[in-house]
Design goal:
Elements: H1 9-25, H2 35-40, E1 49-54, H3 61-64, E2 72-77, H4 84-96, E3 101-107, H5 111-122, H6 130-146, H7 152-170, H8 172-179, E4 184-191, E5 196-203
Parallel strand pairs: 1-2, 1-3, 3-4
Antiparallel strand pairs: 4-5
Helix pairs in contact: 5-6, 6-7, 7-8
Amino acid sequence: MTDAAPATPREAFDLLLAGNHRFADGTPRHPNQDAARRAGLASAQRPFAVLFGCSDSRLAAEIIFDQGLGDLFVVRTAGHVAGPEVLGSIEYGVSVLGCPLVVVLGHDSCGAVAATRSAVQDGTTAPGYLRDVIERVTPSVLATQAAGLSQDDDFIATHVRHTVDFISERSRVLADQVASGRTAVVGLSYRLTEGSARVVASRGLDLPSEQGLRSDATPAPNS
C-alpha cells in the first residue's frame, strides 16, 4: 500500500513511471487493491494523478500503470477527445482533489484516429455522434499530413500533443495550476504490444531521457 500520495508533479510522474515499468516487465505488484485499502477510501479519495485517456479496452489505466483503488482519477473518451464535461472533470481532479499531475494517454492502433484518417482521405462522414469524435480528431490528422508525416506513430503523437495543448489552453484552472508549479501536464503514447509508454509532450515538468520514456518532442516553452 502506498504510504503517502505524491505531493509534487515530479513525484507523481515517477510513481506512475515505476508502475508502467513493472507492468511492461511482467512484474506488477497490484498495489492498493485489498480490503484495507477499500475501507480506507470509503470516506474520501486522494488520487495522485488525473489520467485522461482513450476509451480503448486495451488501455485500462490502473492495470498498465500498476496502480490500485484511489490512485488515479480516470477520465476516458474515444480518441481522448475533450469537451466541457472532460474539462470539468480534469478541473475537479486538480482543483478539488489536488492531483499534481494530469496525463493525456494515447496509443498506437487507435480506432478513432484510424477512422478519422479514413474519413479525411475518402471525404466521408460517420453516422450519429461518431461524427463528432471524428471532427475533433480531424485537426490532428490534418496537421500530421501537413508536416509531411505518414506513420501511425506520427498521427498518434500529434493527436496527443494537440490534446495536451487543448486542455492546457482551454482550461484557465489547469493553466493557472501549471503556471504556479502545482500541476504538470504530460502527454504519453502507449504501445499495445510492449506495454510501455513514451513521452510526447509536457507542460510544467522537465522529463530527462534517463527516466526510461523516449521523448519525441521538445518541451513547450512553459514546461
